[in-house]
Design brief:
eight-stranded antiparallel β-barrel; single chain; three-stranded antiparallel β-sheet; 1 helix
């Protein structure tokens, strides 16, 4: 080492302030931490749709009888319901804030009716061997399709972003349309039989109105499907059929299973 350089360095150190501290070496920049934002999952989707399968406790038209009699006319009608309690349809739901949602429902039910009508006109003369009365026998077989539309407001017991099974209550107006009535009728008068296909008459020509309330449960699976069993009660304000032995029910109880996505 050069003695001249060593003495110069020593002299330099003698003139430094007592509180002098050598500067720290620059530290390498710390790696930036990536900010991760957890995205909330909607377990009640903003818009969901699917199919429904329904089972009615009682078919829309029940059994009925009608009878009337005077001195010259007697009549007796009897209707037996042969309808199926099974129906199907669809549902579309739109999520609303604060645990609410609105669902549009559509269900189809079909039923069959068997009706017999016996009418006796006139008076039988007991002093003759023939029956002077006019006897008419009618047999009707009808198939009917009911289309029910509902707008139901639902309230869940959990927020839409909270995980788990959730229960909801629902309620709203329901409307029924009957657009498909097929009837086969045979009429026998004094041994002469005729056949026609005139549909039976409705008591309400337009939509039948009603109010529906229900309760249901929503289950979520790992594939994005929702399984929703529910129970609904509908009180109809009008009767679609309300004449003679035709008697539509005003109270409707239904179990529905929906699969939505």
């Amino acid at each position: 080492q050069n003695p001249t350089n060593s003495s110069q360095s020593l002299g330099y150190l003698l003139y430094l302030p007592k509180d002098y501290k050598p500067a720290d070496a620059p530290k390498p920049d710390a790696p930036k931490q990536e900010q991760t934002t957890l995205k909330k999952v909607n377990y009640v989707r903003r818009i969901s749709a699917g199919g429904t399968f329904g089972f009615l406790a009682l078919v829309p038209v029940g059994d009925g009888e009608f009878a009337s009699a005077t001195n010259v006319l007697s009549r007796k009608d009897e209707t037996k319901s042969k309808g199926s309690p099974i129906g199907f349809g669809g549902v579309v739901q739109v999520a609303l804030p604060r645990k609410f949602a609105v669902a549009g429902t559509y269900n189809i039910h079909a039923s069959k009716l068997e009706t017999t009508k016996n009418t006796i006109e006139g008076v039988d003369n007991p002093f003759t061997t023939i029956d002077e009365r006019k006897i008419t026998d009618v047999k009707e077989n009808s198939s009917i399709k009911y289309r029910d539309f509902g707008i139901l407001v639902r309230r869940y017991d959990k927020d839409h972003t909270k995980q788990g099974v959730r229960v909801f209550v629902e309620g709203g107006p329901t409307f029924r349309a009957v657009q498909s009535i097929r009837t086969t009728r045979t009429t026998t008068v004094a041994g002469d039989t005729k056949t026609d296909n005139k549909p039976i008459d409705k008591s309400v020509q337009n939509l039948t109105r009603g109010w529906t309330g229900g309760i249901g449960v929503q289950y979520n699976d790992d594939f994005g499907f929702r399984v929703v069993p529910e129970f609904r009660y509908t009180r109809w304000m009008d009767k679609t059929f309300n004449k003679d032995s035709y008697n539509s029910r005003k109270n409707q109880f239904e179990v529905i299973l929906s699969i939505t996505f």
